[in-house]
Amino acid sequence: MRLSLRFVLPLMLVLAGIAYAIAPLVDQLTLRWFVRDLDMRSALIANTIQEPLQEQLAAGNKAKTVGFFRRITQDERLYAVGYCATPTSTALVSRSLPAELRCSELNRWELAGEHLLPSAQGPLHVAVKPMSSEAAPTGRLVLVHDMSFITRRSEETKRYVFYFFMGLAAVVSLITVIIAQLSWRGWMAGMQSLLRGEGLLRQPGSGAQSNLPEFKPIARDLQRLIRELESDARARDEDQITWTPESLRATLQGELRGEDVIVVSNREPYIHQRHGEQIEVQQPASGLVTALEPIMRACRGTWIAHGSGSADRDVVDRHDRVAVPPENPAYQIRRVWLTAEEEAGYYYGFANEGLWPLCHIAHVRPTFRSSDWDQYVAVNRKFAKAVVSEAKTKAPIVLVQDYHFALLPKMLREELPDATIIAFWHIPWPNPESFAICPWRDEVLAGMLGSSILGFHTQFHCNNFVDTVDRFLEARVDRESFTVSFGGKLTAVRRYPISIAWPPEVEMLQKTVPDCRSAIRQMSDLPPEHKLGIGVDRLDYTKGIMERFRAIERLLELKPEWVGRFTFVQAAAPSRSGIEEYQHHEAQVRAMALRINERFGHAGPPPILLKVEHHEPREVYEYFRAADLCFVSSLHDGMNLVAKEFIAARDDERGVLILSQFTGAARELPEALIVNPYDADQCAAALHLALTMPADEQRDRMRLMRGLVAEFNVFRWAGRMLLDAAAMRRRGRLIDKGKAAG
Ligand code: ADQ
C-alpha cells in the first residue's frame, strides 16, 4: 500500500502539471476554430441579408432597416449589425457600435482582416462585408458577434482537460500498481528461490518461477554476490577468531543461541565396561570421537550413539541417557541398543565390509549382502526415531557422523522437515566408477542428499561425490556453488578438513620430552640413544601397516648401519576384529613383524615392537614425544588425525613426520616427508632422511606444521560447519519472513 502511494502521488502531480501546461494551447486552438466559425457565419449572414437589405435601403425607410437589423440580432450570439453607405455617412445599426467601428474606420477593418475587438462585455468578433451588387445601393455591412461564450467554453475546456488528465493518471496508476504488484510477487518468489540457491537448479516442470530465462543472469550475479559476501564474512570471521573451546562456545552462544544441537554417531564417546564388580569408563580410539568430543563439551547438546559397552545399560537413566564426561558432566549421551543381529548386519556387514572398502581404495573387495542392507536400513530408522524423540524443537541442528548413517539424513528430513542436517563423511569418497559397484548406490546417494550440508575432508572428495551424483541420479548439480538439488531439496557439498584440539590438554605435555624419551626407552629395553620411530593406528588394512613394515625392512636392507640402532614401535588398537578380513590382516601384520624381527633382531633390540592393544591418549602422547620420527603410511585416509597429534605433541619442535600422499592431511602438511606407501624404496629413503635430519631442519619443518595445526584446529572445523548452518538458518528465516510479508 505504501509502495502504491509512493508511486501514485508523484504520477498524479506530474500529470496535473502536464494538464496545466497544455490548457493554454488547447485554449488558443479552440479560439482559432471559433474565430474561423464566426467568419463563416458572418459571411453567411451577410449573403443572406444582402438582398432584403438592399430592397429596404432602396425604399429609403431607415427606421424599417434598423428594425430589420434588430430582428436579426435576436440571435444571442449576434451582438450587433450595422450598415455604412459611405465612409463619411452615419451608420444604420441595430444597437450602438463601439467607437472603433465608425463608418470611417471600416475600410481599415476590412483591409486588416482583424476580427477581434475587446470590450467591457468581453471580446467581440467583427466582420466587415462589402455589399457588392449590380443593384444599388452599395456600402459595407458590419456584423459583430459576442464572443463571451467562447471564454466560458474555454474555462469549461480547461476544467475538462484537467479532469481528463486526473482520470488518466488514476487509470494509469491503477494499472501500473496492479502490474507491479503481480510482477513483484513473481520476482519475490523468483528471488526467494534464488536465495535458497534453487534458481537455476529446479527441474523443468517443477513450476518454479525462477526457471524464467530472465532470472538466469540475475541468478548467477546474485548467487556470486552472496557467495562473495559469505566467503568475505567467513574469511573475516576466521581471521578474527582464534578458535578455542571458549571461542567455539561463544560463537555457538551468539550464532546458535538456544538452538537444539544433536550429534549422531555409531561410536559413543564414553564406553562403560564391566570388570568384575568394577565399572570402568573407556574413551575409544577413534578420530571421529577425538574430533567431536570437544564440540559437545562446548555446546552441551545430546549425543546419540550405539551403547556398546558391557556396563552401558547399568549407568543410564530410564530414558537411556547418561551425563558425561564422568568427572565433569557437560552433555548427555543417549544410548541406542542394537541386537547382535542388527550389529552384525548394519555395522560389521554393510558399513564395514561394504562401504568402508568401497570408499577406500585399499584393494580389499567390498562385500554386499542384502541381509546386511536390510539391517542397515532398519538401524538407520531406529536412530532416526531416537533423534526425533530427543529433539526439543521442530528445527534442531543435527550433526550426522559418517558412513554408518548414509540413509539417516533423508529419514530425518521426512520427520523433521525444518531441521538443519549436517552430515559429515569422515572417510574418502571414491570416483563414480568405484562407487557404482554398490548395489544400493542410488538409495545411499538419495539418503545422503537429505542433508542440508554434506561435508568431506578434501575438495577432491567433494568433487568425487558431486560427479557420482551427476552420473547416477536425476539431480541438478551446480558446480559453481557446489550444490545439488534433488527431489526439490538443496544440499551444499562443502570441504571441512577435520583436525585436533589445540592446544593439547596440559597433562599430555606435562612430562618433558627428555623424560618421555628415557621412560619409553627404558620400558622397551632400548639403549638411551637408540633411534625410535612410532606408528599409532587402529589395526586396519587401510592404514598401510604392512607397507610400513616393508619400508623398515627395506631401510635395513639398504642402510644396514641402522640394524640394532633403530626400532619402530607400532601401537595398533584392535579394531572390527569380528570381521574375517581384519582377523586375516592382524595375523599378517603379526607374522610380518615376527619375520622382520627374526631377520634383523640378532644384532640387538628388535627393529619392530608391535603392541596390539588400546593405549590411553596420555600414553600415545608419551610415545610421540619419545620418538625421532612418526610414520603414517595409510593406503587411503580421509584425513588422518595421528599425523596432527604427533605434531601437537612436539612442543620441542623436534621429530620428523613421514606422511602418505594418500591421506587428507598430506594436502595440508607439505612440510612432512610425503611418500607413496606402495614404494618401499622411497619410504626407506624417507626413513633414512628422517633419522639423519639436522635439528634445525626438523625445527623449521615442525614449526610450520605446528602453526598450521594450531590455526586449523578442530574448533575451527566445528565452528565453520555450525556457522554455515547458522547462516543457512538465518537465510531460511529471512525467506519465510519475505513469504509472510509478500
Ligand atoms: P580413523 O580411521 O579412526 O578415523 P585417525 O584419523 O587416524 O583414523 O584417528 C585415529 C584416532 O584414534 C587418533 O586419535 C589416534 O590417536 C587414536 N588411536 C589410534 N590407534 C590407537 C591406539 N592404538 N591406541 C590409542 N589410540 C589410538 C576416521 C578416518 C580418518 C579421519 C577420522 C576423523 O578414517 O581419515 O581422520 O575419521 O575424521
Note down, in words, how this protein is organized.
The protein has 742 residues and is α/β, with parallel strands linked by helices. The chain has three domains: 1-189, PAS domain (Beta-Lactamase), CATH 3.30.450.20; 261-495, Glycogen Phosphorylase B (Rossmann fold, 3-Layer(aba) Sandwich), CATH 3.40.50; 511-712, Rossmann fold, CATH 3.40.50. Helices cover 51% and strands 16% of the residues. It is built from 22 helices and 23 strands. The strands form four sheets. A ten-stranded mixed β-sheet has the order 10-11-9-6-12-13-14-17-16-15, sandwiched between helices. Strands 20-19-18-21-22-23 form a six-stranded parallel β-sheet, sandwiched between helices. A hairpin with a 7-residue loop joins strand 1 and strand 2. The longest helix is centred in the N-terminal third of the chain and has 58 residues, at 2-59. The chain is rod-shaped, with a radius of gyration of 49 Å. The N and C termini lie close together (12 Å). Bound molecules: adenosine-5'-diphosphate-glucose. Residues 285-288, 290-291, 426-427, 498, 536-538, 571-573, 614-615, 620, 637-642, 645 line the site of adenosine-5'-diphosphate-glucose (ADQ).
Helix content: 40-55%
Strand proportion: 15-25%
Strand order of the largest sheet: 10-11-9-6-12-13-14-17-16-15
What are the segments in which pLDDT stays under 50 over at least 5 consecutive residues? Answer: 199-210
Q: What count of structural domains?
A: 3
Question: What is the gyration radius calculated from CA atoms?
Answer: 49 Å
First-residue to last-residue Cα separation: 12 Å
Count of DSSP strands: 23
Chemical compounds bound to the protein: adenosine-5'-diphosphate-glucose
Number of helices: 22
CATH topology assignment of the largest domain: Rossmann fold
Overall CATH class of the largest domain: Alpha Beta
* CATH H-level superfamily title of the largest domain: Glycogen Phosphorylase B
- What is the overall silhouette? rod-shaped
The overall pLDDT average reads: 88
CATH architecture field of the largest domain: 3-Layer(aba) Sandwich
Global structural class? alpha/beta
Biggest β-sheet strands, sense, barrel? 10 strands, mixed
